[in-house]
Amino acid sequence: MNKKNPVREHILKSLQLGMRPDGRALEQYRNVEVTYGVSKTAEGSALVKIGDTEVIAGAKLSVEVPFPDTPDEGIIMVNAELLPLSSPRFEAGPPGIEAVELARVVDRGLRESKALDLKKLCIKKGEKVWAVSVDICTINDAGNLFDAAGLAAIAALQDAVFPSYDGTEVDYDTKTTEKLPLSKTPIPITVLKIGDYFIVDALQEEMASVDSRLTVTTTADGTICSLQKGGDVAITLADIDKMITLSLVQAKMLRKKL
Amino acid sequence: MGNLLVEERTVVVPGEKIAEGLDYLPANGAYRKDDFILAGRLGLLIMDGRAVKIIPLSGRYMPKRNDVIIGKVIDVTISGWRFEINCAYSAMLSMKDATSDFIARGADLTQFFNLDDMVVVKIVNVTSQKLVDLTTKGPGLRKLYGGRIVLVNCNKVPRIIGKQGSMVSLIKNATGCKIIVGQNGAIWIDGEPKNEVIAIEAIRKIEQESHISGLTDRVTEYLESKCGKIQMPAQEEQPQEEQ
Amino acid sequence: MAYTKRLDGRKQKEFRQITAKAGVIKNADGSAYFKIGNTVAYAAVYGPRELHPKFMQDPSTGILRCNYNMMPFAGMGNRVRPGQNRRAKEISMVTQKALLPVVDLKEFPNAVIDVFVELPQTDAGSRCAGICAASIALADAGIPMKDLVSAVSVGTVDGTIVVDLDYGEEAYDGSVADIPIAYIPSTEEISLLQMDGEITKETLLEALEIGKIAWHEIIEIQKNALKEKYKVSGEENE
Hints:
CATH superfamily of chain A: GHMP Kinase, N-terminal domain
Number of domains of chain A: 1
Distance between the termini of chain A: 37 Å
Strand content of chain A: 25-35%
CATH superfamily of the largest domain in chain B: K Homology domain, type 1
Number of helices of chain B: 5
Strand content of chain B: 25-35%
Largest sheet of chain B: 5 strands, mixed, barrel
Oligomer: heterotrimer
Distance between the termini of chain B: 42 Å
Number of strands of chain A: 12
Largest sheet of chain A: 6 strands, mixed
Helix content of chain B: 10-25%
CATH topology of the largest domain in chain B: Ribosomal Protein S8, Chain: A, domain 1
CATH class of the largest domain in chain B: Alpha Beta
CATH architecture of chain A: 2-Layer Sandwich
Radius of gyration of chain A: 19 Å
Number of domains of chain B: 3
Structural class of chain A: alpha+beta
Order of helices and strands of chain B: EEEEEEEEEEEHEEEEHHEEHH
Number of helices of chain A: 5
CATH class of chain A: Alpha Beta
Strand order of the largest sheet of chain B: 9-10-11-13-12
Number of strands of chain B: 17
CATH architecture of the largest domain in chain B: 2-Layer Sandwich
């Protein structure tokens, strides 16, 4: 992208005056809304709105054979689709690199924080475990999909209940009241650096002018459980310090919406 | 021998019966089926004598001859520039329509317009295949420097401009921003960043509330709440920009 | 034993409760949300826009392209692996055929009108719900259309003609005919007709007559969704 293009120039000029294209301050989030249970066919689901960005996450549970190297642990899997219905820039077809990155970033946040106690998902060691699949689908992309997706994923897991299981077959029509063994709420916050300025909750047009971005996933006690740097430009240690500090503040705010 | 089934100035939907009998004629967006005139699109019903017209409320921009629009350069070729004009079709500006100056063969055309430049252009021709030709020779047609572009529903452009430019002038005077409204729904705004945001919010207000009466008062009220009392100059000139 | 009382207590000719909204996806040129019973469909229309690849372009008219997809968690049982399976491909095609007769794309040569249908939750009748949502979305996008298209299934369960079969009825342990249909009210023509099950010609024609009433009622709901969004759109004479 042409670094001297007029859109980027204007964004920088505004940032210098402390303003974003929609009038927000640099460290200001748009309105965040979480709605639970939006899909009755999912075992757990949530719709997250951040400004005009809308993302749905659905969690499905099934009984599977555990992985050979973790015979007493359940399985968690995260998949994401940037649906063409949510933006003119997405095409129909298998997930591209943007969707893959999003899924893997959310996955790492959930997995590395050990938010889900995988040992408690074991039914019979070496034979049967519960597998949790989280599918993230975008409904409207108005920027900051990473944060919306991460929030939706954890909300869907919070919403989830086990279906009935008689030892042989899962009965999806009969839900139990038993919730998933969830002990933490990992939340990703993506901080962008454009020129010398740091912003959160980026709009799509700000994403297009990004120099570098850092997605920091943290749990309630401030432990960082996942990091992802994106963008073409390298960042300094001071940048990283600043970006992590920013994300901790924002994660606290976002966590309150759950 | 004819009966209007729907009140004028209501929103009609595709397939809706608008008139009965042979007295009426289907014009833009309406069609005849047996004894009835039906709506052929979503829009506002307007009667023009006996002609039934449906004014679109939504829909992407379709290029029209003589429209003054704002486009973005997406390609620089040997003989001219290709523009994105916020619709399904791109448009060409050839060297001869760009300037009366002599341009040597093989000259670097980027010195005139480069990639990502925003330019106020006029459509000189649209073929049946929707090939669009542009010109920048004419008053007000020029490259834009600075500022930002917002895209609006092109069907709301007349409301945003207002009668004889009154609405856009209101916004310009209140916010002190330069504003150029393209017929293709691309609007250029240039001013203090916080005033630009106010201007954009006023424009979005018009876009969303154009159907509720008292719009001018509400927009004035909004602008005054953000910018203070508005001074309207006595006589408003009509520069080319406002078309 | 004849099926006289429906599983969810509905009357024979009653379709499930519908919620329809227009303009729910900001980025799209037109969009809609259509919920019938527990089946929910989003539809988004993008277009007319440039069509790639170029060899698909038609210089005489715009092209209508439909893409139907169920989200992985939208099925009544197991998770469905994402990606367009054969069923989705077929439904995408019949959706396009259902909508094509009403749209007029002559003024968009070489361009495409893309229609995307996504379902976060289903309980049978998903392709019909998708078509209803897509109709609203196309009108919302200002596409020239001679009418909206309405759709809901008719069929028989153990000899009883019913309208809008839900999952329980489709899977009923007995004789079932499940017939999804799309209907153009102004011409009384049918643009989608498929069937699973067994039925006689006489019963089929009877079911279609019963369906007519439902399709006419549903189209009013679709029309109201559009009118609700655009309310009283009066241009002021200032």
